[in-house]
Write a structure and sequence with these properties.
This protein is 45% helix and 16% strand. The protein is α/β, with parallel strands linked by helices and 224 residues long. The chain has one domain: Decaprenyl diphosphate synthase-like (Undecaprenyl pyrophosphate synthetase), CATH 3.40.1180.10. Helix 4 links the parallel strand 3 and strand 4. Helix 3 packs parallel to helix 4.
Length: 224
């Protein structure tokens, strides 16, 4: 049975769910946040150590400004209202991506990271303004500047995920089968599950079903 330490999730389908059931993409994002809270709770129950959530990509800036503003206001409210609760549950919050947001949101993100830095039950890596290609390019630039030998280990030491083990499992909801510039290097040997359900409809039962299937897989890592 495969040990499970780190699950990464591409939370796809909020907007489509919102349009289908509430006639509003923003309503879908709000419902998706409730799913996030459920999966965080279930991750603790499953004794996961790392949960990485793809919340906003470098490509998502192409979306309508009104929708982007709503997404960030949801995140601000979540940090203001839920940070103490996360902290009391011994959850660590780490941001991967470029903190290039409003002054208010940047301060909230920095505060959240600082406040929860010593927590150890579950680490949530929130991918915000994150793009894997940019991460790899920036790491190459830093490695060249350091004058260190070009090796796999030296390169990954300049990733934002350098202190985080690679995901064992990636889940993408929303019936879309692509990685969308998410952790391209880190997912090299991850098991990938594409889920038809849109993210707001994804349940703890769905999560546990995928974990059960993951644990049955024979993982060879290039061996036989």
């Amino acid at each position: 049975m495969n040990p499970l330490n780190h699950v990464a999730i591409i939370m796809d389908g909020n907007g489509r769910w919102g349009l289908k059931y509430k006639k509003s993409r923003n309503a879908g994002h709000k419902a998706g946040l409730r799913t996030v809270e459920k999966i965080i709770k279930e991750s603790i129950n499953k004794k996961l150590k790392y949960l990485t959530l793809y919340a906003f990509s470098t490509e998502n800036w192409k979306r309508p400004k009104q929708e982007i503003n709503f997404l960030f206001s949801l995140l601000e409210n979540f940090l203001i209202n839920k940070l103490d609760k996360l902290h009391k549950k011994n959850i660590k919050l780490k941001i991967i991506g470029i903190k290039n947001f409003s002054s208010k949101l940047n301060k909230l993100l920095i505060k959240a990271e600082k406040k929860t830095d010593k927590n150890s039950k579950l680490q949530i890596n929130l991918a915000l303004n994150y793009g894997s290609k940019i991460e790899i390019i920036n790491a190459i630039k830093k490695l060249n500047k350091s004058k260190k030998k070009i090796t796999e280990k030296n390169l990954t030491n300049f990733f934002q995920t350098k202190d985080i083990p690679d995901p064992d499992l990636l889940i993408r909801t929303g019936n879309t089968k692509r990685l969308s510039n998410f952790l391209l290097w880190q997912l090299a040997y991850s098991e990938i599950f594409f889920e038809k359900k849109l993210w707001p409809a994804f349940t703890e039962r769905d999560f546990n079903k995928i974990i059960k299937e993951f644990k049955k897989i024979k993982r060879n890592f290039g061996n036989i």
